[in-house]
Write a structure and sequence with these properties.
This protein is an alpha+beta fold and 216 residues long. The protein has 5 helices and 7 strands, in the order ααββββββααβα.
Length: 216
């Protein structure tokens, strides 16, 4: 039986129907495949823009500022995209300076990348039991956050071996860290060590300065 010839209009309608069926299949597949890639690209683009930041910059850019003790560090997958590796960090809060209620006792945040070979070099690692001050960016649309300026926004708090007084360890020269602050605020953080050296500061004074900057 001879094959029926289709009209140009019938051929066009058939092509459109075939494309529509393929498109309905391809769109979910593209979303499932591309979404994790977009998350990775967004997170990497943020972490790649790590420049020296001052204390004033960190306070202004942070969505959350807290001091406390790291009580849990866990590597896992993103809740919506399990193939994207993330680190969950839980902090027992001692003081909340910005972004959390004063009565909040602990919180967990999600940082892009793992803590071993999958860690993003510009972002800090964490260990259970360490005491820190964290300046965290506001959460991204995918739920990520990380310290402002990478490793600069995670400051270690440790007792002075001679006096037992708690001190905050800086990760950059003091002069750059205090850039933009008034002389009055700087005077609260003055120690006897040379100003351009990598050094530490008294926790009590450091805390007072953060509160002053946040309340502006």
């Amino acid at each position: 039986m001879p094959r029926k010839m289709r009209s140009p209009e019938e051929n066009r309608l058939l092509r459109n129907a075939t494309f529509a069926r393929c498109h309905r299949w391809l769109v979910p597949w593209k979303i499932a495949f591309l979404a994790p890639m977009l998350i990775v690209m967004a997170a990497l683009s943020t972490s790649a823009q790590v420049l020296p930041v001052s204390l004033q910059d960190m306070v202004e850019r942070a969505g959350i500022i807290v001091s406390g003790r790291v009580v849990d560090v866990r590597q896992g997958g993103h809740p919506d995209y399990p193939h994207v590796t993330v680190t969950y960090v839980t902090v027992e809060i001692e003081e909340s300076f910005k972004g959390l209620s004063a009565d909040r006792r602990r919180f967990t945040f999600m940082q892009f990348g793992g803590q071993g070979l999958t860690r993003v070099p510009e972002l800090p690692s964490y260990r259970q039991g360490e005491r820190v001050i964290l300046f965290l960016y506001p959460k991204s649309r995918y739920g990520f956050t990380s310290p402002v300026g990478g490793i600069q926004g995670k400051l270690s708090v440790q007792p002075d071996p001679r006096t037992g007084e708690r001190r905050v360890t800086l990760v950059m020269p003091r002069a750059r860290f205090l850039e933009g602050l008034s002389q009055e605020v700087r005077s609260l953080m003055t120690d006897s060590i040379e100003p351009d050296e990598l050094t530490t500061m008294r926790y009590r004074a450091f805390r007072a300065v953060i509160r002053r900057l946040v309340s502006r």
